[in-house]
Amino acid sequence: YYRENYDSQNQKVVNKVVLGFSQVGAESDWRTANSESIQSAAQAEGIKLIFSNAQQKQENQIKAIRSFIAQKVDIIAFSPIVENGWEDVLNEAKIAGIPVIVMDRAIDIQDKALYVTHIGSDFEEEGRKAGRWLLEKVKKTKGSINVVELRGTFGSSPTNGRSKGFEEIIKPNTFIKMIGCKYGDFMKSKGKEIMENFLKSEGNRIHVVYSHNDDMALGAVEAIEEYGLKPGEDIIIISIDAVKAAFQAMIEGKINCTVECNPLQGPELMKAAKSIMKGNSLPKRIIINEGIFSQDMAKSELPNRKY
Ligand code: GYE
């Protein structure tokens, strides 16, 4: 995909469109699939991609965006690690005249004109789906149901949305009790660690784990097994993302359900980038459609999974 320009001698120069993308990190299977989707879609569309990994640190993302501005890229896109703190750097992009696309995670900003569009999932709805599934699962049980929540990254939009949506469904049902929540940055190792701590303090009182992503759920599975309980039977596990490894765990009976969050957003991003270059306007919000999968569907669905 090309952009035409005229140089100082008024000669036409044709360059590939350059997209600077600042990625969150490489914390999960979801993220790996998302990065691959962006890289292959850029190649397929002939867009030159400058890809930068922020290792889960906002300051690295701010630096990356500043370097995209310095390199005079055509478009900047990023998946913001956390929701707040983007005013300054996005104002710098605006002054440089570079359009910005927010992808995957959302930002919380007053001046909505600082980005063109936000492409990504509805995290609150994912949380509601998880909550509704749990309600259905436990509605006939007697006594209270104790839930621990493995949250993602503090201040990130998927964490905020997934907590909020789940709570909205669960709260009116007072027999379901949230007995603890901890942040595990969407990483398997941290999911395991925080689950170990929950088991140490709460032990057999835990009936349900609600994990904000599959990697942390898989870490929790290990912790529960090492503790001598059966994940998926002694403790119900609800997760989000629906990556292949979670399907494998569902087939083995160790995760009960996973809400889909589709990482294959590269083609949508390139489509948006091309529209912007053509001067077309875009909707402020582009939502990715998603489903939910439980153990009974895992075997038949696994061969269809792309990530
Ligand atoms: O659920 C998690 C990843 O931002 C939606 O980030 C994404 C989340 C995803 O690390 O696995």
TrEMBL record:
Ranges of residues in domain Periplasmic binding protein: 20-280
Record flagged with keyword Lipoprotein: no
Subcellular location: Cell envelope
InterPro entries referenced in this protein's UniProt entry, alphabetically: Peripla_BP_I, SBP_2_dom
Domain of life: Bacteria
Key words, A-Z: Signal
GO molecular function, one term: carbohydrate binding
Main location group: other
GO CC terms in record: cell envelope
Pfam families on file: Peripla_BP_4 (PF13407)
Record SUPFAM superfamilies: Periplasmic binding protein-like I (SSF53822)
Family (UniProt): Belongs to the bacterial solute-binding protein 2 family.
Protein name: Periplasmic binding protein domain containing protein
